[in-house]
């Protein structure tokens, strides 16, 4: 697909997303999301982690925007689940660990069994952050458990489990509108996948996304996750319909050579 057609399709996906509206989570939990974002931005360790991840540069389909959103939403979920106890140093620490888990969760995204591989790879990076042994184990556990359609072991309701569950939910929030406004394009652009091929895979993929609706793990994820997914599915259906119609119009256009300067085209001449 030529660049301008990709651009048009991306713009279209973003216009549809605006029409479909912001997920309720960002409206009703705006305070927690803003606070998590502020802590993330003001923490030099976040920037250091992002630089480590960027150096690997292995993100087909999952760019740094994805990583930052997962980190910030993971932190917001901790704040919500912990009832906003922001003066509690334990909660603040948990938000920091959630940010780190978010930053590193897709470090092996381009590899098979990327969650398991990422859990191993992150061990090389965590010593930089001077964490306690238990904190390292919690982050490793969260990364290992973040993949969709896999069971999450050790559901004990203790801190490590919360860390694991918020990472999963924040990552799966991305299967909502972001899937069609960002992830889809980040996957197909570098690979030069033509629009026609994209359209044939589109509807089965929507079915896969629908199945994530019931997999959210925290109470907050279960409350807001389905709303993300439903909005994403609506965007996907509208986008599929619009791109299919555009391709149909393209097919129906008459084949003609370049328009002569100041003259009329062959088609116009035939229509006269
Ligand atoms: Fe992942
Ligand atoms: Fe991810």
What does this protein look like?
It is a single chain. The chain is an all-alpha fold. The chain is 71% helix and 0% strand. Mean pLDDT is 86; it is low at 260-272. Bound molecules: fe (ii) ion (2 copies).
* Small-molecule binders: fe (ii) ion
The overall pLDDT average reads 86
Strand portion: under 5%
Q: DSSP helix count?
A: 13
CATH class reads: Mainly Alpha
Rg, Å, rounded: 22 Å
Strand runs, count? 0
Shape: globular
Q: Encode the helix/strand succession as letters.
A: HHHHHHHHHHHHH
Q: Tell me the structural class.
A: mainly alpha
Rounded to the nearest angstrom, the distance between the terminal CA atoms is 33 Å
- Main beta sheet strand tally, sense and closure: none
Quick summary:
This protein has helices at 3-20, 24-28, 30-42, 44-56, 64-81, 89-104, 114-125, 133-144, 159-173, 177-191, 195-210, 219-252, 266-271. The protein has 272 residues and is mainly α.
For the structure shown, list the relevant keywords.
272 residues; mainly alpha; Hypothetical protein af1432; 71% helix; globular; disordered C terminus; binds fe (ii) ion
How are the SSEs ordered, and which strands pair?
Blueprint: H1 3-20, H2 24-28, H3 30-42, H4 44-56, H5 64-81, H6 89-104, H7 114-125, H8 133-144, H9 159-173, H10 177-191, H11 195-210, H12 219-252, H13 266-271
Helix pairs in contact: 1-10, 1-12, 3-5, 4-6, 5-6, 5-9, 6-8, 6-9, 7-8, 8-9, 9-12, 10-12, 11-12
This protein binds fe (ii) ion (2 copies).
């Amino acid at each position: 697909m030529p660049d301008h057609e990709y651009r048009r399709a991306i713009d279209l996906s973003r216009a549809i997303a605006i029409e479909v509206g912001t997920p309720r989570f960002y409206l009703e939990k705006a305070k927690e999301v803003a606070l998590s974002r502020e802590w993330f931005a003001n923490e030099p360790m976040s920037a250091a982690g992002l630089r480590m991840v960027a150096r690997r540069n292995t993100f087909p389909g999952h760019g740094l925007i994805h990583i930052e959103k997962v980190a910030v939403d993971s932190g917001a979920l901790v704040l919500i689940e912990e009832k906003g106890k922001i003066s509690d140093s334990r909660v603040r620490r948990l938000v920091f660990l959630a940010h780190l888990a978010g930053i590193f969760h897709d470090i092996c995204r381009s590899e098979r069994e990327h969650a398991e591989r990422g859990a191993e790879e992150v061990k090389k990076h965590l010593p930089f952050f001077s964490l306690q042994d238990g904190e390292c184990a919690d982050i490793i556990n969260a990364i290992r458990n973040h993949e969709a359609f896999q069971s999450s072991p050790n559901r004990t309701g203790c801190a490590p489990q919360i860390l694991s569950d918020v990472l999963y939910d924040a990552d799966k929030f991305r299967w909502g509108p972001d899937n069609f406004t960002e992830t889809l394009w980040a996957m197909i652009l570098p690979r030069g996948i033509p629009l026609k091929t994209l359209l044939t895979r589109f509807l089965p993929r929507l079915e896969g996304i629908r199945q994530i609706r019931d997999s959210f793990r925290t109470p907050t994820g279960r409350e807001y996750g389905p709303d993300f997914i439903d909005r994403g599915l609506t965007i996907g259906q509208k986008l599929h319909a619009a791109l299919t119609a555009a391709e149909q119009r393209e097919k129906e256009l008459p084949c003609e050579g370049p328009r002569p300067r100041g003259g009329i085209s062959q088609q116009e001449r035939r229509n006269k």
